[in-house]
């Protein structure tokens, strides 16, 4: 009622006065209350800012938060949400959670629709609905309380029920009695356990339920004769007092002083009688007494109050607009303290945390100046003066001065020069020097009091260096002030003289560098550090009278530079120095952007203070930006402010400690050189959000709290593993999992974990190892996950250790047993099966080996036999080939003499028949040799067709003519039936001759005397193929009816015939029929191969003793032989008879060249008879020289220089090819033409001969007329070339020589003569010297090539040059004569007339 009246009746003026009074009261009341910092949970995305009804903690240490939108489990880093579902066992029955308590091994969770029992180990919810037992009971759960013997007391919206310990499915309703009358439908607000039973706060008041009673009785709380009503909350303290928040105020009574009986009135006292200076609040929703005895009050609209009983002080935490570290909302629903002392606050806008600030460091983030709270941020300079005042210089917030009474702030809005204050010092005369962005202010503390400083700074100008940005001020032992500025370094001497030291006309090593920090060490050295990679010092002992330092101004001061140690030169390039200090042994330390560095004064070098091994993995002091350094001599400790918090290094224990937000730091970021140490030993550090103070005389203790470690997530192959029906790997929730069995394919495992020390979870560090993989612990720092990939099968143990917020490690690691199962094919039973299968396969394999051993041996024997047959075949082939080569030479000595004799009519006329027999058999022998050579060519794949356009009738007629004499001799009727007209087509004449000759030869062999052999030739008619049905197709196309434009050759004999089974075998290599004289056995084989080359078909029909019929079908199509056609051969006219082989006519030889022996020929041949025969042929026409091998021949050629060389190829000592190469590459003999005469007939052999330099390649047996004609042609060609040279007006060496050596020589001679054409004394000797040969060699060579002596050759070149000049018609004839090297024009004219038949003058006119 009073509250309503106040809301309605109070005027705005009264409200304002009351609020001012309350603020003043609060400011006085909380002066000594322990400070707590308001914060929030880390995961603000998952936990929405709405109504929080209850907070609880489970046995592992997870925080459970009940909210209007579900249940949340908080791990310190993130939250897992449990929402609602009507039938899912993994979800709540209703999203609005009203209360949570720990019940046995589960959580009892009350919602607005039912009671839920949650098993954290399995993740399963069990539901209980009171209406299921009694439909009159409400399902809205309002409060929960665990009773002894495992019973659960449940408050609902219309009563109280009891859940028995043996089962949670049986409910017992607890009736509520008022004055002996049972009341139904009473809403329960909360319940409190006490030694006398349970106090139950309802909408009707407080009821008491004794331990052994089955009913609850109402208690009447009396104060001042009136009963308390509208009781909002009750709470039992540790000292057995019940605190009561009612409409009339806050009361209490001592539970132990009353004997609680039915309907007894209980007198309560105002809380002020128990606790003086109680917070001014009435509507308290929830009360909490923490482990320190502090009482926390959560109110309805006034935030949270804390009451500290020892000092009777209190503090109020509330929501403030646009302020940080305040509550989210002032309507408080839940309070909870965890084991670490953190207070959790649930409000209508989410969860806040309260963490005690009684840490190591005092933090000043704001100061109240003139009743206005001012932010103390971006602190750059600090000083505590002799009067105990704290001076704070900032960037953007001006200057703060605070003493024990007042605090003043001179803001940049009042004095713009104070926008940035980097340095504040106190000199020996108690004057404060303030270095600003626009000069130095000097404040005399003896004259200017604290309350007057603001006015003083508003009215005065800078005492020194106005408009100059100040970085640092240092006072030395004699009172000189060293002032570093943006424009250079200054000194203000004790005699009050200001002088500039750097950036003057006197050069120093500090020119164009900003000195950021300065330090005076114990040996009177001033150290100066810049941001441009330079440290230097000035030793004041070098100067006689530092008191008269002004005497040295204007002179170059002895600054000594500190260089970077060679090892770190590249790494420390352009480093910056933010702070300098000295430790006990005199070592100078520097705070840089590369960590802490030490200076080796003796070597004048700087290097890192810590090596990699010295700095622990939990610290990154070695690579942080170190902004400030302070040395605490008493504890031998170095303190460093950085961009990663504060560090302390103990030189005795060599341990590094890192301090962060949890330790009370204003932030992790500090400012350069913003450090100070006062006379009391306190250390000051200025940072981005304020100032931190550390009392070095106090020893700080680390928290001994040992938090639990728990897994929060498990990842398998990159996917989250969950405890559900789909996953068989987990039997429990992840946090309770202690063993994990995975398949072989699930061999990549990741773990996420937490250390449940929750105030500052990011300060918890972890280390782990997987036994079986890791040998040592893996330091994770505050990273809380790790992944192991591609684990082989086997058993592992994952061990995890963690620290609390102060870095204290727990003693027992969390161990997870992990097993990767083998693949199905790698299990023990499958391995056994594989062994059995392997043994079986080996057994079978051995049996197969044994079984096939004889078979393999038989195959090897067969292979050997085949190899022997092949070798025998190759031997035969080589033998026949070599034999054919050997036969060709004696055959040449037979063929040529016979033809020579037959060419003499008087000799041939005596016995023409005998000469014809000789000639025919010689031709037969030649054909046999050629057939053997063709056979070998075919075997090596080098037999090709030389197709020409010719008359097949003429070709067949010439072949049959060679059998006329044979048929008469053997008395065989030989009938030839050929068309009377020409049958022009494309074919290889030589190959067709071999085909027909072989077939006719076999026919004559198989035919006895008086028998018949017939041959016919006609066009093939595809319409008449029925007659050929009895023929067997040996090769080619058997679809005879498809043949178009074909001819066929048919040979029929009446001989012994061939067995039908042998018809195909007779066409194989080396087949011989014993019934007849079958020869070498390659004739019909070659017939088949040559026919196939012509794309032809062979048909055969034979009967024993009846005879054989051969048919050769050949195509007439031109396109079949498109790649094999050569130039057409001249055809014999239809009326002209083919020339008989016995007829020999000598043609084409010009006998005139043989009349006189003007030329010589060298014969090189190892066969004596052939060499003598060749000499006999040639010596009637040439001078002949002979040699028996290539070596003799080469010497002979060099000595005699013949006009032509005729040589064999196969010779001892040096063959003909090598002889040819040496002749052509020799200067003296390169012009001599060479004819190779050999028995080697392969195309590749001919090509080798021509490539060696031969001019002509002739094969044995040879025709004498052809040999003579080639010799005559080569000699005549050489003579013609010489004539061409002599008659050409212009010299072209390529026209007078065919040898590259000769052509090169002639080009050199021509070039040399043309270059010296005006030289009238040009001689043979000079040209020989230029060319590099002897005079005789050059004479012979020029004579042989040109037919001219060297002098005539020179004259010829001069005349040819003269012709060129005359044709230009620009010079007189006398000028031309002198330019061409002629001494007199008359001699020139005479020579010109002799050469060209006219005078030079006549030539010019023509």
Automatic annotation (TrEMBL):
Record-level Gene Ontology MF annotations: kinase activity
Record domain HTH araC/xylS-type: where: 1307-1406
Enzyme class, first EC level, given as a word: transferase
Keyword list, A-Z: DNA-binding, Kinase, Membrane, Phosphoprotein, Transcription, Transcription regulation, Transferase, Transmembrane, Transmembrane helix
InterPro entries hit by this protein: CheY-like_superfamily, HATPase_C_sf, HATPase_dom, His_kinase_dom, HisK_dim/P_dom, HisK_dim/P_sf, Homeodomain-like_sf, HTH_AraC
Keyword Zinc: no
Residue ranges of domain Histidine kinase in the record: 882-1118
Origin: domain of life: Bacteria
Transmembrane segment boundaries: 828-850
Its EC number(s): 2.7.13.3
Stored SMART domains: HATPase_c, HisKA, HTH_ARAC, REC
Catalytic activity, as annotated: ATP + protein L-histidine = ADP + protein N-phospho-L-histidine
Protein name, UniProt field: histidine kinase
Species of the source: Zobellia uliginosa
Lineage: Bacteria, Pseudomonadati, Bacteroidota, Flavobacteriia, Flavobacteriales
